[in-house]
């Protein structure tokens, strides 16, 4: 079962989301943050969230600005906007009486989750999947148009079967994002999940995130998984691991 929702971005346009409702006894509520140009219906977002819901953790997954069913222009977003909209999504969950206990971020969404966790009162646990330690890691995805963006102020960029407009302000915002200090200041338990054969975001990123974080912190190797978790059963496996790891922290929320 799922519930479609909408709430405003910090820059105005409405964002579209889906809450995968928990089955059986409710263990807690969570929020999933999708990757760079992916969306709430990408394999990682949808499959991980649905599996967590089957295990009693209701999950909100939403499309960022100009992605999927959300309004607005993707080019008007940035890493800062993604972080702020993640915080806004958590506030939306609190407003509906289901405050976020568990925050899960995949790929660039993992970086945004690390950056936003400190602004979510009551958060119990944070898990990242295939996250980069430096948000500017995404620059390699649009390096072919980077010079034109910086010289002209904006340029079209074809990615994932669609054309997006990449703007200079977006690039500059990403370059100014510093994540390591925020990781070191985290005050929630952290699980870092990463595949040793990830060819998009190297597993060395997981090692750096783990080293920067305080205890309690955990690492799990997602052997055999690709970056997007498209291989059969891999997203569900990641969800099982996150669910089991988070259980003791969700238990604190139930008491």
TrEMBL record:
MF term (GO), any: carboxylic ester hydrolase activity
Keyword terms: Hydrolase
AB hydrolase-1 domain mapped to chain residues: 31-230
Matching SUPFAM superfamilies: alpha/beta-Hydrolases (SSF53474)
Organism field: Streptomyces antnestii
Keyword Ion transport attributed: no
Protein name: Alpha/beta fold hydrolase
Family: Belongs to the AB hydrolase superfamily. FUS2 hydrolase family.
Taxonomic path: Bacteria, Bacillati, Actinomycetota, Actinomycetes, Kitasatosporales
Matches recorded under PANTHER family: DIENELACTONE HYDROLASE DOMAIN-CONTAINING PROTEIN-RELATED, POLYKETIDE TRANSFERASE AF380
């Amino acid at each position: 079962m799922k519930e479609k929702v909408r709430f405003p971005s910090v820059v105005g346009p409405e964002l579209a989301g889906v809450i995968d409702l928990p089955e059986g006894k409710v263990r807690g509520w969570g929020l999933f943050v999708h990757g760079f140009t992916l969306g709430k219906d990408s394999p990682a977002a949808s499959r991980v969230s649905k599996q967590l819901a089957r295990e009693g953790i209701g999950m909100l997954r939403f499309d960022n600005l100009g992605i999927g069913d959300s309004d607005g222009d993707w080019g008007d977003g940035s890493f800062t906007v993604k972080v702020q909209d993640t915080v806004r999504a958590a506030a939306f969950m609190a407003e509906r009486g289901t405050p976020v206990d568990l925050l899960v971020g995949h790929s660039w969404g993992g970086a945004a989750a690390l950056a936003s966790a400190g602004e979510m009162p009551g958060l119990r646990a944070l898990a990242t999947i295939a996250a980069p330690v430096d948000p500017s890691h995404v620059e390699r995805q649009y390096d072919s148009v980077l010079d034109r963006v910086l010289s002209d102020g904006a340029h079209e960029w074809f990615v994932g079967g669609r054309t997006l407009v990449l703007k200079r302000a977006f690039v500059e915002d990403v370059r100014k994002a510093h994540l390591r200090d925020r990781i070191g200041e985290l005050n929630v338990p952290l699980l870092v999940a990463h595949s040793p054969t990830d060819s998009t975001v190297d597993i060395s990123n997981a090692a750096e995130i783990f080293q920067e974080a305080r205890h309690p912190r955990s690492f799990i190797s997602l052997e055999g998984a690709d970056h997007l978790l498209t291989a059969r059963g891999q997203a569900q496996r990641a969800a099982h691991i996150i669910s089991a790891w988070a259980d003791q922290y969700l238990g604190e929320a139930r008491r």
